[in-house]
Design brief:
By secondary structure, this protein is of the alpha+beta class. It has six helices and ten strands, in the order E-E-E-E-H-E-E-E-H-E-H-E-H-E-H-H. The strands form three sheets. Strands 2-1-10-8-9 form a five-stranded mixed beta sheet. A three-stranded antiparallel beta sheet has the order 4-3-5. A hairpin with a 5-residue loop joins strand 3 (24-27) and strand 4. Helix 2 packs across helix 3 (100-112).
Length: 196
């Protein structure tokens, strides 16, 4: 099971021009990339021999550097319609909690995709576009004409995937799914306020 991020690309003056899943489908024999985004999702839903679908971005972090570079190159080229979107400054909105090392990997993958300058923030794209007071932006913020948002727009699905990962890990460590569920209930009861 893959955990795809949702990628939104916004261009000033045009609005949101692209919305895709962070998926890459490739041939396991030739290593040739077969599809990106929604097309890769379709391939995942209709599995074929020798085709593997991966998500090079997970929760805003680069999980597969080479595939992430190819994904960004494809998405930016698709956004620009004629040729790769090169040598432009790009702002990137990522989920909260991303580390400096993870930011560096994301920044490097975008540079490899042909972007000239990268500004990474954990501010949501809606707040960034409104220039919400209190948000620290670079002095020359107006030069960022392209904004990429890496997010998860389906939180229930992501939570479900995370629980499944934990259950699989528990099973691999000899902890039954019933024991793991009891642990979840015990932990969640500590965070849910009780009315007196």
């Amino acid at each position: 099971m893959f955990e795809a991020a949702d990628i939104i690309i916004y261009i000033k003056g045009k609005g949101i021009v692209l919305k895709e899943k962070s998926l890459v489908a490739y041939n396991t024999i030739s290593s040739k990339i077969m599809a990106f985004g929604e097309a890769a999702l379709t391939m995942a839903e209709n599995p074929a021999d020798n085709i593997k679908v991966i998500s090079p971005l997970r929760r805003g972090m680069v999980a597969d550097y080479i595939a992430a570079v190819k994904l960004f190159t494809y998405l930016l080229s698709k956004t620009w319609e004629k040729k790769p979107l090169c040598k432009v400054p790009v702002a990137v909105c990522v989920p909260k909690g991303i580390t400096e090392v993870e930011k560096k990997a994301l920044e490097d993958s975008l540079y490899q995709s042909g972007v000239r300058e990268v500004f990474i923030t954990d501010v949501k794209i809606r707040q960034l576009l409104k220039e919400t007071p209190g948000i620290i932006l670079p002095k020359n913020w107006q030069k960022f004409k392209v904004i990429i948002s890496i997010t998860n727009e389906e939180p229930k699905r992501y939570i479900s995937e995370q629980f499944l990962e934990v259950l699989n890990y528990a099973e691999s460590e000899g902890i039954s799914s019933e024991e793991a569920r009891e642990m979840f209930q015990d932990i969640s009861s500590k965070f849910i306020p009780h009315n007196c």
